């Protein structure tokens, strides 16, 4: 495989005119590697707390300012087929654990970069792959030995906070304590005893104005809507939820009403009015004080709602409506009718308030154990708030991962160096040619602390040698001290900079798989792209799987 | 117009220069095409510097509008509509900035507008000045994250200092509160076009806001503009006023004035209901009279009818106006603005909006600080003193923050044509001696105790301005790369030939 594969004479003749075809090490493998390397260079500077943000302007001219690798890649629209594989690996990481996407990219990039060296040295592709696979297997075994602590009680806010802090730190360095506190409160309050945690139950509401530190968290939901009627605040609210418009029923079929005289004409509209009044009255008499509707609110219905002092809130999104049902424990009624007591939800207070100059309706529970909690993000620009939202997402996902697996490994490059150390010695015990690639695999781990150091303006090599010496003395938890000025190390367990075990586990696994897949390709055949106008792209995104299929999960925070 | 034009030119220049294409490696005969064709990327310190420069250009555009002696800008948009304004947010909105980093400044101006309604120029200036002071440090290779940390510390210190020294006025004392509100409104109006009538308007604005209910919904203050007449002829109606629209035949016979009328608010036409409600909403701000909007003509009972003391129809300028005055549950009011040119009344409306917002904020947060650069000088002194107590790079950076704060009094002087250096020297000396509230005295080309001179601002305005400006500066500093995807159009790039890698490469072998 490593040698040049002779082609059938006139291979190109067999293809349609304009098709492209590349094969062999030089043409296919190295070029693929180079593309992936370039991609990981882009995201590498965004790695870690001191990572820089990227300004990405997508094809719709929307501006993103972020250091979240998943977002950068999503908006970049990577075209290169091999680079796409790495992007996909990072997407898988996003779906699997929701954090550590940049880890996958940087690690896969390092693996490929080192693979190139091996190939140039004369190793065959298959030997490199074999070595990588072996090393990966061994790494995952060793990884469980690196576990340094585990979350004891996720219902404890302080403990949850210290665990979420590391994830938030890499996104919002400087605000991590404040944000981690909010996220921890939000997560813990909706984390039921049964241990079933749903990421979707932590909502985010972004309101422009003030500063990040004015963000807050509350039990219940916040909607950027105004109350429709005159009533703007209800305590101890009984909530009737309708998925239909708050209007009289319209029949599906068209009918003709024949009106014979003036009396009938008057009675016709009067009958409509009476019916509406009776309807609204029935809702009121059932005990409801707040009406939430998924559709339009008719003037007539609003009039009677005002008359009977019902607060009317209109929600446009059916997802919002469903979540609200969950929050207040109501059943959405498909038809305007009086709800039974069971069908009505309860909420301690529902009120209209002004945050900045945005009017919001708040459904608030006083008690802690609500079903849904909301983090209200304030910030001076939309981009900033979007970035904080991503930090909140990462924090919540970290919590979710910890619910699944409570084990933790030290962060700040400590785990990577420990793995590198152990894999190197493992490699040396292997007799075959794969020894080289196993050792390179170990070397690839150095890319992560190196990125951390370089992003902080510290010499990478200096730090890595310090880390190695600390680890050889048996201090497994020594990692990079980001607070210090130079290449200093400190105990990550004591500094409570910990990453969930699963994040690392999947990160290593997915990155290795992606790198191997890229390496395995030795031939690329591209058909000529069809001419003519391009078919309209669906949401402008090539990676349809996963992004579109779960609108519920993806569109969580809008 | 000149300024705006020039600015747009510079901005478009900046946009082009800041998006350098990926430099192809010399070793490679064909570059690896990683991203879609047409995607621009640029990276590193030069990118950061270019972003900072772009922000300076934006700040230049609004710089001269700050303060009572600030000049106005006349902008003409693509449809030829002229706008005169010295409101930072309005100017930036109309500039239509395309540079991604500079857009951040527009965003914070918007945010300041949303949160407090005034101080949009100062927030832009502050952010740009922060960046300007930091530029040299970035060029020297100081890590942006270090700068960001120092700035966050400095902002927290400054905000807690404002909270510490702000003077709060007791809410219980109605008289005192009113005075406070009027002074805040006057300070806000001072820098606007209608500064000459600030006493007149500040009183009107405070009256208007005081008549609202607790939620103080801005919608409950209607502003109607009637061309003609003098500014002083503007009036506040405690109730609803609107231009007379359509009325039925026979209306002219009716009296034009009712005392204590009962009002039926109809959403439909006052006639036999036809098959379709094609009715016009003729009475808009109905809540004032305490009546519910009636959609049906039936069920007209006493409790749904509204009341007010006086209804009359009056000639205002060229229009007939209907007034509903003295409503018992009046939680609304209408300001009728008079004035010459359309642009003039529009700018007046914006100014009043700012003043109204300030008053609302001042009611919610009853602490004030002195304006006219006094608070900035005090913070600057405080931070400079603080910076001397700490070692390391943070000292320099917090010092830079302190220096940047001086831009506000400096610009006030510049706009008024004073010798800024001289005045700032005097101010620094005075503040060092403990004259906490000394700021620029615009009227006498000197310094004065602005707290005594009643140049007051709600402290929330300054807190928000500092937070927003430093957040924006940090955001811009934290960006080291811009990646721009080509704008997707419906027909896509011409042909498909350019897609994929190895474009145009002759087939080897």
TrEMBL record, chain A:
GO terms for molecular function: ATP binding; ATP hydrolysis activity; ATP-dependent protein folding chaperone; unfolded protein binding. It holds the Pfam family Cpn60_TCP1. SUPFAM superfamilies: GroEL apical domain-like, GroEL equatorial domain-like, GroEL-intermediate domain like. The keyword NAD does not apply. GO terms for cellular component: cytoplasm. Residues 530-558 are annotated as: Disordered. One of its GO terms (biological process) is behavioral response to nicotine. Transmembrane segments: none annotated. Coiled coil: none annotated. It comes from the Eukaryota. Its main location: cytoplasm. Residues 546-558 have a biased composition (Acidic residues). It is found in: Cytoplasm. Keywords: ATP-binding, Chaperone, Cytoplasm, Nucleotide-binding. InterPro entries: Chap_CCT_theta, Chaperone_TCP-1, Chaperonin_TCP-1_CS, Cpn60/GroEL/TCP-1, GroEL-like_apical_dom_sf, GROEL-like_equatorial_sf, TCP-1-like_intermed_sf. Belongs to the TCP-1 chaperonin family. This is T-complex protein 1 subunit theta. It comes from Oreochromis niloticus (Nile tilapia).
From TrEMBL, chain B:
The keyword Nucleotide-binding applies. The gene is CCT7. The keyword Glycoprotein does not apply. GO terms for cellular component: chaperonin-containing T-complex. This is T-complex protein 1 subunit eta. GO terms for molecular function: ATP binding; ATP hydrolysis activity; ATP-dependent protein folding chaperone; unfolded protein binding. Belongs to the TCP-1 chaperonin family. It comes from the Eukaryota. It comes from Oreochromis niloticus (Nile tilapia). Residues 485-509 are annotated as: Disordered. Residues 500-509 have a biased composition (Basic residues). It is found in: Cytoplasm. It holds the Pfam family Cpn60_TCP1. Heterooligomeric complex that forms two stacked rings. Coiled coil: none annotated. InterPro entries: Chap_CCT_eta, Chaperone_TCP-1, Chaperonin_TCP-1_CS, Cpn60/GroEL/TCP-1, GroEL-like_apical_dom_sf, GROEL-like_equatorial_sf, TCP-1-like_intermed_sf. Molecular chaperone; assists the folding of proteins upon ATP hydrolysis. Known to play a role, in vitro, in the folding of actin and tubulin.
